[in-house]
TrEMBL record:
Reaction(s) the record says it catalyses: tRNA(Asn) + L-asparagine + ATP = L-asparaginyl-tRNA(Asn) + AMP + diphosphate + H(+)
GO biological process, one term: asparaginyl-tRNA aminoacylation
Keyword Magnesium (UniProt): no
Designated name of the protein: Asparagine--tRNA ligase
Chief site of localization: cytoplasm
Keyword Ligase carried by entry: yes
GO cellular component: cytoplasm
Molecular function terms from GO: asparagine-tRNA ligase activity; ATP binding; catalytic activity, acting on a protein; nucleic acid binding; transferase activity
Pfam (any one): tRNA_anti-codon
Subcellular localization(s) per the UniProt record: Cytoplasm
Annotated EC: 6.1.1.22
Top-level taxonomic group: Bacteria
C-alpha cells in the first residue's frame, strides 16, 4: 500500500510504502535510524539488521543526506515521537543517491542559507513555517467564504497608485508607464460596489529600501472591502478574522508550533475583542514611557509600536491617526478634521503592524479635493472617482500582510523565513 507520512496513522500494524528523502540518519552495528521526510511530514524509519536482508541493511547504513527512495515497512505507534508513529523498515529502494548535499546538520550562516534557499526549504524548521503559512491561507479562505465574501483578483500592473508612486516599481506597458501594484485596494473598492463584500489575496510590491526584519520587497496581502460597512463594522471583522486564523493554526499545526518552540500560551489568549488605543493616547503613553522623540503628527516607528504592543497581550488597534500622515482616500472623523477613521493593528511580541485599514471617503467632492490636494493626476483616478459619483455608500476595508502575520504566529524572528523565496533589498536569487 503506497501512502504518505501524514496518512500513516490509518495503517497501524500494516505494511506501507512511502516515497521519501533522507533528512538525517544515525546507526549502530545492528540498527539504523533513518529520519525520513516526504513533504507531508517527518517520520523515523528503523532498520534492524536481523530483520532484513544484508543488502537492505547496508544500503540503509550507506545512504547520504537527501537521497531519495521508496521505503517499505510496518507502521507502529511510538509514544516517544512527537508524531506518534514510526516505520519498521523491511525494504529500501534507492531512487537517487545525493552526493555532498551542501546544507548539513551543522550551523550555517544566514547568507549561505539564503543562497541555498531552494534547498533550505527542506529543513524541519522551514517545513514547519511553510505549513503554518499554508494553514493561515486555508483559514483565510474559510473565514471569508463562510462570511459571504466574494474572491476578486485585482490587476498587478496598474497605471496609478493608492498611496502615491514614490515606492513603486516602474515599468513600461507598451507605450505607457505602468507600476507593479503596491495594493489592490482601489480596484477592490470598485468590486465591493458590485458584489457587496469582497476580498483579494495576491502579491504586492514596495520599492522601499528597507533592511529591517519586518520588510520584504515582494509580499502577499489579503485585502477585503465591504460596502455599507462603517469604521466600527470593519474593526469587528478584522479582529474576528485574526482570531480565526490564530485558532486554526493552534488546532491544525500543533506539531509545527512545537517544532519551532513557539509559546502557544501566548497565542491561546488571542480572542475577541481586541484592545484599542487612539493615536492621541498612544502619543501620551509613549511620552510616559520616555519616548521624547515622538510628537503629535509623527508616524510611529518599530520601537514605538513595540512599546505600545508590549502593554497588551493581544493585538491592539491604534485608531484615528492624523490626516496628514495617511493616504488620500481615508474618511475624516466626523468630529475632527485633523484625524481620519483608520486603524493599524499591531501584533504582540514586537512583530509590528499586521493590518492597516480605514473607512473610505464616499463623498465625491471630498474625494476629488483629496486627490488634488495630494498632487495626484486626476485623469488617472477618473475611474475611481466614478465610485463616489454613481451610487456611493459608506464602505470600509483593510489589508493584512501575510508574511508578518506568519512570522508572529510561528514565532520566527525575520520575515525572510515566512515566504518560500524572499525578495529583499539586495537579494533576487534564487
Amino acid at each position: 500500500m503506497k501512502t504518505t507520512i501524514s496518512q500513516v496513522n490509518k495503517f497501524v500494524g500494516q505494511e506501507v510504502t512511502i516515497g521519501a528523502w533522507l533528512a538525517n540518519k544515525r546507526s549502530s552495528g545492528k540498527i539504523a535510524f533513518l529520519q525520513l521526510r516526504d513533504g507531508t511530514g517527518f517520520i523515523q524509519g528503523v532498520v534492524v539488521k536481523s530483520d532484513v536482508d544484508e543488502g537492505v541493511f547496508q544500503t540503509a547504513k550507506s545512504l547520504s543526506q537527501e537521497s531519495s527512495m521508496y521505503v517499505t515497512g510496518k507502521v507502529q505507534e511510538d509514544s516517544r515521537s512527537p508524531f506518534g508513529f514510526e516505520l519498521l523498515v523491511t525494504n529500501v529502494e534507492v531512487i537517487q543517491e545525493a552526493v555532498d548535499y551542501p546544507i548539513t546538520p551543522k550551523e550555517h550562516g544566514t547568507e549561505f542559507l539564503m543562497d541555498n534557499r531552494h534547498l533550505w526549504l527542506r529543513s524541519r524548521r522551514q517545513h514547519a513555517v511553510m505549513k503554518i503559512r499554508n494553514e493561515i491561507i486555508r483559514a483565510t479562505y474559510e473565514f471569508f467564504n463562510e462570511n459571504g465574501f466574494v474572491k476578486v483578483d485585482p490587476p498587478i500592473l496598474t497605471g496609478s497608485s493608492p498611496e502615491g508612486t514614490t515606492e513603486l516599481f516602474k515599468t513600461k506597458y507598451f507605450e505607457e508607464d505602468a507600476f507593479l501594484s503596491q495594493s489592490g485596494q482601489l480596484y477592490m473598492e470598485a468590486a465591493a460596489m458590485a458584489l457587496g463584500k469582497v476580498f483579494s489575496f495576491g502579491p504586492t510590491f514596495r520599492a522601499e529600501k528597507s533592511k529591517t526584519r519586518r520588510h520584504l520587497i515582494e509580499f502577499w496581502m489579503i485585502e477585503p472591502e465591504m460596502a455599507f460597512y462603517e469604521f466600527e463594522d470593519s474593526l469587528k471583522v478584522q479582529e474576528e478574522y485574526v482570531a480565526h486564523i490564530v485558532q486554526s493554526v493552534l488546532k491544525n499545526c500543533s506539531l509545527e508550533l512545537e517544532r519551532l518552540g513557539r509559546d502557544t500560551s501566548k497565542l491561546e489568549k488571542i480572542t475577541v475583542p481586541f484592545p484599542r488605543i487612539s493615536y492621541d493616547d498612544a502619543i501620551k503613553f509613549l511620552h510616559e514611557q520616555g519616548f521624547e522623540d515622538i510628537e503629535w503628527g509623527d508616524d510611529f516607528g518599530a520601537p514605538h509600536e513595540t512599546a505600545i504592543a508590549d502593554h497588551f497581550d493581544k493585538p491592539v488597534f491604534i485608531t484615528h491617526y492624523p490626516t496628514k500622515i495617511k493616504p488620500f482616500y481615508m474618511q475624516p472623523a466626523p468630529d475632527r478634521d485633523d484625524v481620519v477613521l483608520c486603524a493599524d493593528m499591531i501584533a504582540p511580541e514586537g512583530y509590528g503592524e499586521i493590518i492597516g485599514g480605514s473607512e473610505r471617503i464616499h463623498d465625491f467632492e471630498l474625494m476629488k479635493k483629496q486627490i488634488e490636494k495630494h498632487n495626484l493626476p486626476l485623469e488617472a483616478y477618473n475611474w475611481y472617482l466614478d465610485l463616489s459619483k454613481y451610487g456611493s455608500v459608506p464602505h470600509s476595508g483593510f489589508g493584512l500582510g501575510l508574511e508578518r502575520t506568519v512570522a508572529w504566529i510561528s514565532g520566527v524572528e525575520h520575515v525572510r523565513e515566512t515566504i518560500p523565496f524572499p525578495r529583499l533589498l539586495n537579494r533576487l536569487y534564487p
